[in-house]
Amino acid sequence: MTFPTPTLETDRLILRAPRAEDFEPWAAFAADEEVNRYLGGAQGRAQAWRGMCQMAGAWTVRGFSMFSVIEKSSGRWIGRLGPWQPEGWPGTEVGWGLVRDAWGKGYATEGAAAAIDWAFDTLGWTEVIHTIDPQNVPSQEVAKRLGSKNLGPTNLPPPLDQWPVEAWGQTREAWQARRR
Asked: Most CB contacts within 10 A, which of 4, 121, 144, 169?
């Protein structure tokens, strides 16, 4: 099975499938304790490699996965975001994670909005969720800017089941009504 991998563009971002050249910045992202505080904890290079390959492989197996986020103005890799639904996941998610110096610039909201549009329009999803740690206020604010509401506690599959998360989300109809 091979699915074409799209490239999405926003005013300031390019969203594309992960590539081999993304590994060094991906590994630095994965090793940052503060960045990964609510994303399952910091990871070493070997674990980061497996994580990046898992995201890249999902494009082949599922036809969607998180995109690498490239800042247009610099051409640099600044994170990963987009559709995500591994086995046992509590719903059709669009998630985000960006390098620390990309925080507070609206990139997560901008990129996630493009990914949500793509998931609804291309994948045919009827709802989207974001799994967010109850203490992760910045991601809750991104979810609110996207129009999502707190749907309450949910569970991630093992080995992530020890992390408390809440599902934030909305239906395709609610999303489209806001976008008009």
From this structure: 169
pLDDT of residue 2 exceeding 80, the answer is no
pTM confidence score? 0.95
The token pair at 77 is: 């890799």
Positive or negative: CA dihedral 132, 134, 138, 142 = positive
Question: Omega of the bond prior to 159 within 30 degrees of 0, cis?
Answer: yes
Q: The tokens of 163 are what?
A: 């992390």
pLDDT in tens, 122-173: 999 999 999 999 999 999 999 999 999 999 999 999 988 888 999 999 999 9
Q: What is the distance between the alpha carbons of residues 176 and 130, in angstroms, rounded to a whole number?
A: 17
Retrieve residue 100's tokens. 């620390």
Q: Which helix (H) or strand (E) holds 178?
A: helix 172-179
Distance CA 11, CA 106 (A): 11
- Looking at residue 95, its amino acid is G
H runs (alpha helix) in 93-148: 107-118, 137-145
Residue 119 has, within 13 A of its CA and on its CB side, a CA count of 30
Question: Percent helix, strand, coil in the chain (nearest 5)?
Answer: 35, 25, 40
Residue range 7-50, pLDDT digits in tens: 999 999 999 999 999 999 999 999 999 988 888 888 999 999 99
